[in-house]
Prior knowledge:
α2 (32-39) packs parallel to α3 (53-63). The chain is an alpha/beta fold and 79 residues long. The model has no long low-confidence stretch (mean pLDDT 90). Helix content is 33%, strand content 18%. The longest helix is centred in the C-terminal third of the chain and has 11 residues, at 53-63. It has a two-stranded parallel ribbon with strand order 1-2. Strands 3-4 form a two-stranded parallel ribbon. It is globular and about 40 Å long. α3 (53-63) links the parallel β3 (43-46) and β4. It has helices at residues 14-20, 32-39, 53-63; strands spanning 8-10, 27-29, 43-46, 67-70.
Amino acid sequence: MDGARLVGLADLDTEAAARAVSGADVEIRSDAAELFEKTNPDIIDIAVPPHAHAALVRLALQTGARAIICQKPFSTSIE
Length: 79
């Protein structure tokens, strides 16, 4: 996407997150809520195991992100 840039990465393993972005100027947090509040992203990409999708999508919606990308499957059941 032209003009897009990665502003943050949330991972429980912040050391792994730091290695993933190879020293780029990216905010790294272990808590997604803190990351969303600090960076105020336009787009949030949720790439976590399915059991964590719903809570993070709700959190992303509350931040006012203009777009939310959720890796499939969104849920493992309809309940």
